Amino acid sequence: MEKKKNIDKLCARTKHENCVRTTFGEKMRIKIEEIRQLCADVCLKLGLTKENAEIVVDEYLYGELTGKKSHGFSSFVGFAVKKIKSRKGDWKIVKEDEAYALIDGNGNLGQLVGKFAMELAVKKARKTGIALVGMNGMESYLMPGYYAKMASDKGMIGFVIDNAKSRVAPFGGTEPRLGANPIGLAIPTKDVSFVLDMATSMRAMGEVRLCKKLGKLLPGGMALDGEGNPTTNPDEVKALRSFGGYKGYGLCLAIEILAGSFIRAKMGSKIRSGLDRGYLFLAINPEIFVDLDTFKKEISDLIQEIKSCKKEEGVEEILIPGEMAQRNMEENLKRGYLEIDDKIVGEIKGLL
C-alpha cells in the first residue's frame, strides 16, 4: 500500500534523529516515528508480535495523519490496550465459497482480522469479480474507510459497513436504539483517492469521547441528553442523532440489518460489547465490466467536472470525499511531526 510505504520511508528517515518535542499550550509537537514507536512498544509489552503491533498502530496513525483525531491516538489507550488484553485466539473461516467467506473473529483484534478479511476479499474478487466477507465475534477497528481504501489501492472498489452498540436515536425518538453504523467506500481513480468514511450519526461517538477527555464542548445539534434535550456537554450525552433526518436514519437501520443478522451478528439492544458487532466487507473488480484504466480515467474526469462547478460565495474549493484527508497525510508526512495533546502522549507513555 502506497500509504504504508510513505510512512515507512519517513520513519526510516527519522528513526535515528533526535526526537525534538515542543509544547504549544495543550499541544505537543512530536516526531511521527516517536509516537508510532511508543504505541508499538506498548503493543509489544502486551504480547503482540512486532508485525501485528505495526498493523494495529498504523490504523491509529492513519487517523492522526489524515486529521481524524477522534480516531487517532486519543483512542489508543482506551481501545487498543483494553482489546489487546482481552483478545482470545486466532480467527477462523467458518463458511466459504469462491465469492464469499464468513469469519469468526474469536475475540481477536479488528485491525488484524480486518486486514486479513479485506485481503481475502480482494483475492477472491480477482477470480470471481466480486467478493463478500463477513466477520463477527471480533474486537472493533476504527475507520471503515481505512479498510475500503485497502481495496482501492489494489484497483478494486472497496465497500465496508459495520453495526455497533446502540448510540443513535431513531428519527423522531430520543433514546438510543441503533449504532452509529459507519460506511467506508473507496474507488480507484487516476488522481485523488475517493474515500468516503462516515458514521450515519451526525458525528461519531469518538468525538464525544475526545471532547470529554480534553474538556471541550460538542458541536451543537448532534446529541441528546437523558431527557431528550439537545446538549453540547459530552458528560450528558445519552443518544446521538442520525445525519440527514429520516434519510440518515433509514441508512443507519439498513446497515444495522446487513451487518447484523445477515452475517450472524447481533443487533440493537442485543449488542452489549464489541464482540457482538458485525462487519461486512465487499470488494468489486471494475474489470468485470470495464478496463481499469478507462474506469479510473472516467472517474477522474467526473471529479474534475465536479470540482469545476461554480462555487457558492465564500467557498474556495469543492472537495471530493477523502481529498482533505489525503492532503493532511501528505503535509504531515512532509513535515515529519504531529501535534498531539500532551495529555494523550502522557497517557501512552504511562503504559510503558
Write up what this structure looks like.
By secondary structure, this protein is an alpha+beta fold. The chain has 2 domains: 2-87 and 327-349, Orthogonal Bundle (Hypothetical Oxidoreductase Yiak, Chain: A, domain 1), CATH 1.10.1530.10; 93-288, Ribosomal Protein S8, Chain: A, domain 1, CATH 3.30.1370.60. Helix content is 40%, strand content 17%. Strands 3-4-5-12-6-8-9 form a 7-stranded mixed sheet, sandwiched between helices. A 3-stranded antiparallel sheet has the order 1-2-13. A 3-stranded mixed sheet has the order 7-11-10, with no helix packed on it. Helix 3 packs across helix 5 (110-128). The longest helix is centred in the middle third of the chain and has 19 residues, at 110-128. It is globular. The two termini are 30 Å apart.
Low-confidence stretches: 9-25
Q: Helical stretch count?
A: 11
**CATH hierarchy, class of the largest domain:** Alpha Beta
CATH topology of the largest domain: Ribosomal Protein S8, Chain: A, domain 1
Query: How many structurally independent domains?
Result: 2
What is the level-2 CATH architecture name of the largest domain? Answer: 2-Layer Sandwich
Question: How many strands in all?
Answer: 13
The helix fraction, in percent, is 40-55%
Order of helix and strand elements from N to C terminus: HEEHHHEEHEHEEEEHEEHEHHEH
Class by SSE composition: alpha+beta
Morphology: globular
Write out the strand line-up for the largest beta sheet, numbering strands in chain order.
3-4-5-12-6-8-9
